[in-house]
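Troubleshooting: if your tokenizer reports a length mismatch, compare your output against this known-good record of 560 residues.
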Amino acid sequence: MISIQGKGVSTGIAIGPLYFYQRAKSEIVRATVKNAEKEWERFKASQEKAIEQLGKLADKAREEAGDEAALLFETHQLMAEDLDYEEAIQGLIEEEFLNAEAAVSDVCAQFAEMFASMDDPYMQARAADVKDVSSRIISILTGAVQGGIDSDVPVILAADDLAPSETVQLDKSKILGFITEGGSGSSHTAILARTMGIPAIIGVGDQIKKEYEGREVIIDGTKGQIIVDSDDNTRKVMLAKLEEQKKTREMLEKLKGLENKTKDGQTIRIYCNIGSPDDVAPVLGNDAGGIGLFRSEFLYLNCDDYPTEDYQFEAYKKVLSDMGDKEVVIRTLDIGADKQIGYFDLPKEENPAMGNRALRICLNRPEIFRTQLRALYRASAFGHLCIMFPMVTSVWEVREAKKMCERVKAELTAEGKAFSNDVQIGIMIETPAAAVMSDRLAKEVDFFSCGTNDLTQYTLACDRQNADLGRFFNPHHPAVLRLLKMVCDNAHKNGIWVGICGELGADLSLTDTFLSIGIDELSVSPRAVLPLRQKVRDTNVAQVRDEVLSSLLGDKTQLS
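Known-good structure output:
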């Protein structure tokens, strides 16, 4: 039996085979082949498999987001079997005896350059299509795994860490838990694990060896413990914990339908954070009151080119329709920093966390912002939409964003397209500047939502992605909590509500604090809804408020 210690970032027990995430190989090996006919057959087999995969993706996209979403994959299917494309590859294989991978790579470069040089924007966009199709065929030829997992059974997934673009493509049905070498509690792997309700352990370094792959692993996300090839007694203990975990969940199920009301009658809204339309089912299954954060950037991460207005509209429409009359807060595009997207062609920055990201990109590139806002307002006709702008630091930024909203509404009105006139506009409070200016910002918007991950990062000057700074990244720091109280006070003075959509919202050790300072809404992962409801219902705010506020503002140091 091998015991490994890491840091648990998503609680629970999971048991299953260990599997290492497989990344596609980026380097193409060039070779001269002796049998051109056999090499051509290799290409044809890979081409057919690619077309089959794209067909399945089109069906899935149509089911989840409509015909417009499926069109992208159907276009790629046509590109994969295009005669000119195919004949160019065949020529390199049969005339130059080039291996299939190199032939596809060369033809891809040739066709992409040809499309990019055309004057027609539609044809220019085909450059991205041919790159995507070629990449898929090359991955099949080289044996690389699409989506990182090639297993018939669910697994404990191990990786160095996963980029946002990689987490988007994972087959979630195949994952029992996560183990990563690095990462942090606010990494996208950790956030995904909490959203999925599965255990995750980070920071194990090189303790997880490649030779462990396929062997049974038990992970305890609460303790950060990993056990490889457990002995009978340890396995028995862990199975008992797993059973206890199920019983606790069954007990929490009884809280469904009950109010989020404290013993002394104070209520708070408990909403959920999601990253895709697929996440709505667990939101409803856990009886959340709404969606407090839909990270719309994951729609962009899941595409090989800028998602169209109709593609976004179908996704937003599905979420709003599925949620019925429940409130849905959709955050506008928030990329940059640790969420990079190749087709945006953002210049390399020395300090991307403080660079061109989120609302700054939207205001600098209004054509992208306009497309998203049109999709959002069109979807607003199908539910209760709130739009939220991230990474705000100044009043002028909010006013510019609101002007764009008004222009889009005027366009849609002129076109006779339906939208709701009851869309709330809010901002994220995730910079100290926004917190300090919250008295003025509150006059511009309908609500605040505090992004505690970035607020902690910027307040403490501490990179939240740097695992070596773990003990310095302290969301409980009095400076962070005092800023949250300031934001609450300024919001309520101006008649608007304030929520928390960062990971701190699910921290039960701070629920008393949030209730005491006047937070109106907490948005958490679906699995955290019922435990949080229980904590709220067990709390008497009148009994704890004085002590909490004295600790936060006075001389006591419980929160230091």
